[in-house]
Amino acid sequence: MNEQPEFIAHLDTDGAICLRKAFDAGWVQLAREGIERNIADPSPFFRNLGENGGGFLSDMWSRRYIPEFERFCMESPVARLAAHALQSDRVRLAQDTWFAKRPGSSERTPWHHDTVISGPFCSVWVALDPTPRAATLEFIRGSHAWGKALMPKSFFDESAKRNAVDQFYADFHGDKSRADAHEFGEIPDIEANRDAYDIIGWDMEPGDCVLFNARTIHGAPGNHLKRTIRRFVTRWVTDESTVAMHGQEMIDALVGAGLEIDLQVGGPVRGKLFPEIRVGDD
């Protein structure tokens, strides 16, 4: 793209940046309304990740029937931000998802990075509620450049105990039976040794977003506030992106949900579920 925003250098160095007031109040309200509609009309991917029926809710690929999400993905500034991050004038929407952590939901989003796509891959997390630093998404600065796909302990030890959140990430981040486990490293126990890592995160207001390389290690604490914290998330790729060699489980999940897709391991990300958006100069 001809236009190179100043944030590109910081994104390349840190792997994650916070952009203030990237989305106005109208877009924030639209995403909130979409989440409420989606809760009332969940897809096969809807999850309550809270223990004992608690309040950590999520759904994926709902854009296809939630009009608020469709408008947000296609008309808001999000595609342009992704295009700048991926330095391409054409991007594809790989996934739309959202997370709502209700008051008292103590489940932590585990430290992980997203490895099911090979090649260019970024995420845009939009805050829909005031989110203090103690409750926000966190990153290990520069970890996108570590050069190795890392998996949680449960990837290597099938007997490891998994809660609902761990199982969710296992379902969509690859199965050891699909790939050579020696290709992967293990996510370190970051929580047990936080001072050893350069952890970054931000206080966020509605409309702020975090834009990050999907391979930057990230995680989030539970919600110990007295109100719900909601985030709308989109993930983006380019024509050079392909399904990773351990991505068959994701393909199986999409097919199992009845979605018409034409994906294969090692192949490009294409099809109606992954629309291309051209972002030209204004």
From TrEMBL:
Coiled coil feature spans: none
MF (Gene Ontology): 2-oxoglutarate-dependent dioxygenase activity; iron ion binding
This protein's name: Phytanoyl-CoA dioxygenase PhyH
Pfam family, one: PhyH
SUPFAM superfamilies assigned to the protein according to its UniProt record, in alphabetical order: Clavaminate synthase-like
Keywords: Dioxygenase, Oxidoreductase
